[in-house]
Amino acid sequence: MKRKNIISLIVIFMIILSFSGCASESKGNVVTSDVKKEEKLKDDKINSYIEEGSKLLGEKKFDEAKSAFQKAISEDKSNKDTYIKIKDKYMENQRMDDAYQIINLGVKNNVDTENMKKISSDIKSKFEVPIIEQKAYEYGKYSLPSSVKMKINNEEKQVNVVWNNPKVDTTKVKVKKYTGKVQGYDREVQLNLNILPVKTVKKTVYAMGTYIKNNRRYLKTREVEFFRDTDEDIDIAERMAIQDGNYDCLIDGMVEDDYYIRDLNKPMKVYEMAPNADISVCEYMVNSSGSAGQKKINYEKFSKVNNIQDRQILSYIYLKNGVIVKYEQQFVP
Questions:
Q1: Which of 96, 221, 235 is CA-nearest to residue 155?
Q2: Does one domain contain both 245 and 321?
Q3: Cβ contacts of residue 64 below 8 Å, gap of 6+?
Q4: Which ranges carry the Bacterial Ig-like domain (predicted)?
Q5: Looking at the structure, do residues 207 and 325 belong to the same domain, yes or no?
Q6: Dist CA 147 CA 161 (whole Å)
C-alpha cells in the first residue's frame, strides 16, 4: 500500500511539472512574439521614413529629406542597414556629399566601423578635386581666395576654403601648388599659381636708412643720376654739370674726380627689400682697411652702416615689381 501511494505521488508531481513547463513555454512564446512585433514595427517605421525621404529627394526638397532620414536613424542608431539604405538613396540622386556624411555619421556612432570606414573612403575617392589656375607676377602681391566655386552634391556652390599654407611666396618664377580644405565639407581644392617673370628696373639713389615694419624690410631712398667720365665718353660729367647750370662744380672746365651727381629734386621714396635680396657695399664700409671693391653683406650689417645719421650712400637698386631684389653701393672718389 505504501509503495502504491509513493508511485501515485510521483505521477502527480510529474503531471504538475509538465503543466508548469507548458505554462513557461507558452509565456516565453508570448514574449518572443511581442519582441518580434516590436522589431517589425520599428523596421516598418524606419523603412517608412526612408521612403518618405526618398520621395522628398525626388522632389528636390533636400532639407525635408534630410529630416526624414534623421528620424529613420534616430529609431535605431546602431542599425547598419539604415545608413546603407540612406546612402544608396543619396547616391541614386547624385548627392554624393550627403551620402558621405551619412556613412561618416555611422562611423561616429560606432556602427560596424571597419566596413563603414571602407565605404567612406570609397566615396571620398570619387570626389573631384577642382583645380584653379591663377597668375601672379614675380615679387608681386597675391592673396589666396577665401572662397571658391565648386560642385557640392552635383550643384555649383560658393564655398569657403581654409588653405593649408596661406602665405604666398612670389619671389621665384615657377608654378606653385596650394591646397586647401572646404569648410563644412570634407573636400579638397587645389590652386596652381603661375608666377611670371618681370623686367628688372635699375635706379640710382641715395640710400638714406632702413627700417622694419610688420616683419618686412624697407629702404628709404632719394633718386639721383650719376655721371662719370670714361674712355668711351670722356666729358659726360662736365656736359651734365653745364647742362644743369652748375658751373661751381667746374675747375678749369673740369669736374673734380671726374664725376657729377645730378639731384632730381624728387621726394624721398621707400622701397621694400626682398628677404633674399643681394646686398653688397664697398669693402671699406665694413673694414676700415678695405678697398673700394664690392663685398656681400647681410641685411643686419647693411642696416648698421646705412642708419648712421645724415648719411647718404650713393647706390644702385634693382627692382622687380617695386621690390628691391639687389642693392649695390657705388664708390665715390
A1: 96
A2: yes
A3: 56
A4: 134-185
A5: yes
A6: 5
Q: What is the CATH number of the domain that holds 101?
A: 1.25.40
Count of other CB atoms within 10 angstroms of residue 23: 10
- 191 and 212, same domain (yes or no): no
Contact 137, 195 (CB under 8 A): yes
User: What pLDDT was estimated at residue 155?
Assistant: 92
**Model pTM score:** 0.73
Are 52 and 145 within one domain? no
Residue at which a domain ends, from 125, 145, 169: 125
Instruction: Please state, in angstroms and as integers, the Cα–Cα distance from residue 41 to each residue in 55, 89, 261, following that order.
Output: 21, 22, 98
pLDDT at 38: 74
Q: Identify the H or E element spanning 134.
A: strand 131-137
Examine the domain organization and report whether 192 and 223 are in the same domain.
no
Domain count, the chain: 3
Using CA atoms, how far residue 290 sits from 287, 296, 308, in Å, is 5, 13, 19
Q: What pLDDT is stored for residue 44 in this prediction?
A: 84
CA dihedral of 47, 69, 74, 48, whole degrees rounded to 10? -20
- Give burial (CB, 10 Å; 0-12/13-18/19+) of 274: buried
Q: Which of 178, 196, 164, 176 is nearest to 130 (CA)?
A: 178
CA–CA dist 228, 270 (Å, integer) = 26
pLDDT mean values, one per 10 residues, the chain (333 residues): 59 57 51 68 86 93 94 92 95 95 95 94 94 96 95 94 95 96 94 97 96 96 94 89 88 87 94 96 87 92 85 95 96 88
Environment class of 246 (CB within 10 Å of its CB; exposed 0-12, middle 13-18, buried 19+): middle
Domain ranges, residue 139: 131-196
Q: So what's the pLDDT on residue 11?
A: 54
| pLDDT recorded at residue 116 | 94
Whole-number Å distance between alpha carbons of 278 and 298: 8
